[in-house]
Specification:
alpha+beta, 3 helices, six-stranded antiparallel β-sheet, globular
Length: 149
């Protein structure tokens, strides 16, 4: 559903405490912005045999405002250290939101850097793919559950 690659297997969801821990780090860093914008973060992690996927959404507390969802995907190989990939991905999330919040402080410039197709990038030693959408990931997951997908 969210993955960059096609898979024959269902994803393994990362534990809720992992997602909550990353969310708390983001709230510690960007908490003042969240309060001002009346928004919060949602963090999702999925693992497939050959792909790891992290999605971080900046969503409104009222659920009617348009979210910003950053999706990051990296290839997994047999010798890949998943923890290293996840750490690099999370560091790149920080770089992204630093940039996002820097633009939102400038009243003359509106942030509109959405990227709807997967693009390749590099951060540190990690080669990964990313996209930035307006999709509400939580609502999409709820819809899929209702549809039995």
């Amino acid at each position: 559903m969210f993955s960059r690659l096609d898979h024959d297997t269902l994803p393994v969801f990362f534990p809720k405490d992992w997602a909550e821990g990353l969310k708390q780090i983001l709230l510690n860093i960007y908490g003042e912005k969240c309060i001002k914008d009346e928004k919060t973060f949602e963090v999702y992690g999925f693992s497939y045999p050959n792909e790891v996927l992290m999605i971080v959404s900046y969503v409104g507390l009222d659920k009617f405002s348009t979210p910003i969802s950053l999706s990051l995907s990296a290839d997994l190989a047999e010798k890949t250290k998943t923890d290293d990939i996840i750490n690099e991905m999370f560091d790149s999330v920080g770089v992204f939101f630093d940039s996002y919040f820097a633009k939102s402080d400038d009243q003359d410039e509106i942030w509109d850097d959405y990227i709807y197709e997967w693009e390749e990038g590099e951060f540190g030693k990690l080669k990964f793919f990313y996209k930035v959408t307006r999709e509400n990931i939580g609502l999409s997951m709820e819809a899929d559950l209702l549809l039995g997908e």
